[in-house]
Amino acid sequence: MIVTTDQLFKIAYGRYAVGAYNINNLEQATGLFRGNIESQAPFIIQISRGARKYTDKRFLEAIIRAAEDVFPEAIFAVHLDHGTEEACYDCIDSGFYSSVMIDASHESFEDNIAITKRVVERAHARGVSVEAELGMLGGVEEDIVGSVCLTKPEEAEEFVAQSGCDSLAVAIGTSHGAYKFTAEPGKKMGLHFDVIEDIQKRLPGYPMVMHGSSSVPKDEVDRINAAGGKMKDTSGVPEEDFLPAARMGVCKVNIDTDGRLVWTRVHREFFRDQPEKFDLRDPGKVYMAEYAKMIAHKNEKLGSAGQLDDVRAKLG
Ligand code: 13P
User: Fold this and answer.
1) CA distance 296 to 309
2) Ligand 1: does its nearest atom lie under 6 Å from the Cβ of 257?
3) Model confidence, pTM
4) What angle (nearest 5°) sits at the alpha carbon of residue 120, between those of residues 129 and 105?
5) Which of 22, 142, 168, 241 to mutate to test the pocket of ligand 1 (most atoms within 8 A of CB)?
6) Which tens digit of pLDDT belongs to each residue from 250-270?
7) The dihedral of CA 140, 141, 146, 147: what is its sign?
8) Mind listing the pLDDT tens digit for each residue in 275-305?
């Protein structure tokens, strides 16, 4: 069942966060649905502009529609990740997406409000929820290369009041991609819980979104490198931080990179260990199982595992 992010956040607020996972193809979609059903969790499918362009956006949409039939128990939102105004309108008008993100965080504060407000008006007329972003994350997302600029809590309050967005992506120290925290003298590493706490005080009950939430597990990076990879030493968001953040109003936690690491590890190890193989379905089967395992594990850490019956009952 496809629902809006707004419906999920009203149920989850302050208790747990809903995992938002980026997918690009059939294997990821299958692993994603399996992992969420196994762990009995509601979830958010994220589709980036890059994913829509990878083949043809209609393929990915058709895969999700088919998955809805194959997994009738699943409760999820279909969300555009980091949309431009044009991409948001395309998704809203498609009638398929239940949620869009308008990312105008690189614009001035006033322009970010004005653009977000236009998207909110069009989206709400179609029953679609809107996520906006204030502040700048570091790292690379699509074609946007960001340098960190934490969200100012007083601006968040004004931004939400003026734009009418349903949830807000806040810059709280994370960044996109595999290389997040670099140790520099005098620089704070990890999440800025003080910023989350301040925003929650100013906007009680209002859902926040945490981008760049992959943990980049050392074990995964080591296995990739042992199988021929050349990733640098790195670390991401500790999974133990998910629940404390959720209790402060972070309702959506975005995870893309960790899924890519699973793909890379599975395929590197598979072909290292079985160089005679050439059937793409063989590593594909391993990947679907491993990605499902990763999703179920993340949902445990987010607190969303085991919540499916409660969500179904509350949706009525
Ligand atoms: P990661 O790169 O940490 O997985 O973050 C993904 C994300 O925030 C997508 O919007």
Assistant:
1) 16
2) yes
3) 0.95
4) 95
5) 22
6) 999 999 999 999 999 999 999
7) negative
8) 999 999 999 999 999 999 999 999 999 999 9
